[in-house]
């Protein structure tokens, strides 16, 4: 049952509005006096799917006092606690992976605070009620991760401390400005807000492709990764796990229904230009949840793939035709076609700057047509299937079988189809 707090029941205390840069310096936690301002809840909607039953009081204020040192020490001990005493803030909770991450933490008994927009999902298709329904078992906090002040006010309104922040945020479009706004700035907001309310561990859902950054969203993610690592280096109370998965099932399922309807399987070059070790939402969510308590995942960058061998597009297509009991029918597209289109778009952007996202989408498509989602071996400079760790048990074959039976419902790509 959902419970919405009426706006006049609460008074929230907001931190001073600091500039972003000063907040994110290694000293920022000392600069924030959490209880110096107050404002009414009405401007910061908070909606909880169940009454909060946190076992620990929020630590206020967070300052550089001796008291803070004791609190910080206490908080770093969260790994010794039972899951029900650990408060996990999940941002990006309504995404393809975020939803499963919330479910996994709830199933493992953690106290989950899921931050969501009032209209969530692809093109904001889900209402508040639908979001609450989707994130059952979590305390849903409707807030704006792109606005630090509002995020902090919302978290403060919960009146609990945060132990761990898990970010599954991602630009829904992959556009240049949106990538920087979400994959970098909003993600950074969640670190700043989380730290401000006591978080001692940050789990970041990143992507294996940031190893070879040629796209804006990869640069945005890498910048945040670097700042997170630096932050942890300078603040010995903070730890991190950076999860870099290979391809998700949804990114490989786009042709299943077309092929079922008799169309050929389309691939670039000979279909062997790239490979990946696809991982399911459930398996990845489980791996992410492991990052909270597993000591071997602390302060680690963790490339991760699903079970089994790496698969090229050719092998994925063959698998699909085998499942359908049909002779393979491939359409091989020369990769040069994409290079031509990208060259043309890059030229047009100089005349029509508004086309910059279209040009970026072309580059994203080109990237995934030719680059493997596998670990880039620093010794050889090549992608290595052997060195890409595997996790979980769900296979792409089972996924294809399911899509052939039930269709792609729930596996939709983002607003810009084809985006990883
Ligand atoms: N697809 C792949 O094969 C693949 C492979 C490896 C890594 N990855 C990485 O995995 C990550 C997550 O992917 P995903 O498919 O789970 O992402 P997704 O389904 O697009 O979810 C994105 C999440 O971010 C939130 N978000 C986006 N823009 C927002 C905004 N302006 N304000 C507030 N929230 C916003 C969304 O909220 P709303 O629901 O409100 O929009 C949603 O919760 C990405 O970083 C991606 O690069 C993907």
Notable characteristics:
420 residues; 2 domains; 7-stranded parallel sheet; disordered N terminus; globular; alpha/beta; 14% strand; binds NADP nicotinamide-adenine-dinucleotide phosphate; 14 helices; two-stranded antiparallel sheet; UDP-galactose 4-epimerase, domain 1; Rossmann fold
Tell me the series of helices and strands, N- to C-terminal: EEHHEEHEHEHEHEHEHEHEHEHEHHEEH
Distance from first to last alpha carbon: 34 Å
- How many individual helices? 14
Give the strand order of the largest sheet, numbering strands 1, 2, ... along the chain.
7-6-5-8-9-10-12
CATH superfamily of the largest domain: NAD(P)-binding Rossmann-like Domain
Overall pLDDT confidence: 84
Output the CATH class name of the largest domain. Answer: Alpha Beta
The CATH topology assignment of the largest domain is: Rossmann fold
Sheet with most strands: 7 strands, parallel
Number of strands: 15
Cα gyration radius (Å): 22 Å
State the helicity in percent bands.
Answer: 25-40%
Query: What structural category arises from helix and sheet content?
Result: alpha/beta
Subcellular location: Plastid, Chloroplast
Organism: Turnera subulata
Pathway: Porphyrin-containing compound metabolism; chlorophyll biosynthesis
Keywords: Chlorophyll biosynthesis, Chloroplast, NADP, Oxidoreductase, Plastid, Transit peptide
């Amino acid at each position: 049952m959902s419970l919405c707090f009426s706006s006049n029941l609460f008074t929230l205390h907001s931190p001073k509005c600091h500039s972003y840069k000063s907040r994110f310096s290694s000293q920022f936690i000392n600069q924030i006096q959490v209880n110096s301002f107050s404002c009414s809840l009405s401007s910061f909607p908070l909606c909880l799917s169940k009454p909060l039953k946190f076992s620990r009081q929020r630590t206020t204020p967070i300052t550089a006092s001796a008291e803070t040192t004791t609190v910080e020490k206490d908080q770093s001990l969260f790994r010794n606690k039972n899951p029900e005493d650990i408060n996990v803030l999940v941002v990006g909770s309504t995404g393809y992976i975020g939803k499963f991450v919330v479910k996994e933490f709830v199933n493992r008994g953690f106290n989950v605070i899921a931050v969501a927009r009032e209209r969530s999902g692809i093109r904001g298709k889900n209402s508040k009620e639908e979001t609450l329904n989707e994130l059952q078992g979590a305390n849903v906090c409707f807030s704006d991760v792109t606005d630090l002040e509002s995020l902090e006010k919302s978290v403060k309104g919960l009146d609990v401390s945060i132990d761990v922040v898990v970010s599954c945020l991602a630009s829904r479009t992959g556009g240049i400005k949106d990538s920087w706004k979400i994959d970098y700035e909003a993600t950074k907001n969640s670190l700043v807000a989380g730290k401000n309310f006591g978080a001692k561990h940050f789990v970041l859902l990143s992507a294996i492709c940031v190893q070879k950054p040629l796209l804006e969203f990869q640069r945005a993610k890498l910048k945040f990764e670097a700042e997170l690592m630096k932050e942890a280096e300078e603040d010995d109370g903070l730890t991190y796990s950076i999860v870099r998965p290979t391809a998700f099932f949804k990114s490989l399922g786009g042709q299943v229904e077309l092929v079922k309807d008799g169309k050929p399987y389309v691939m670039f070059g000979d279909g062997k230009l790239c490979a990946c070790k696809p991982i399911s939402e459930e398996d990845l969510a489980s791996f992410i949840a492991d990052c909270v308590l597993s000591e071997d995942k602390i302060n680690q960058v963790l490339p991760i793939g699903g079970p089994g061998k790496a698969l090229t597009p050719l092998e994925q297509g063959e698998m699909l035709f085998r499942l359908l009991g049909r002779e393979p029918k491939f359409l091989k597209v020369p990769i040069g076609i994409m290079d031509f289109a990208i060259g043309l778009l890059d030229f047009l952007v100089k005349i029509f700057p508004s086309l910059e996202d279209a040009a970026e989408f072309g580059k994203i498509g080109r990237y995934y047509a030719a680059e493997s989602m596998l670990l880039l071996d620093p010794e050889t400079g090549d992608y290595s299937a052997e060195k890409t760790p595997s996790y979980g048990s769900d296979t792409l074959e089972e996924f294809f079988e399911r899509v052939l039976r039930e269709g792609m419902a729930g596996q939709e790509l983002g607003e810009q189809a084809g985006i990883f």
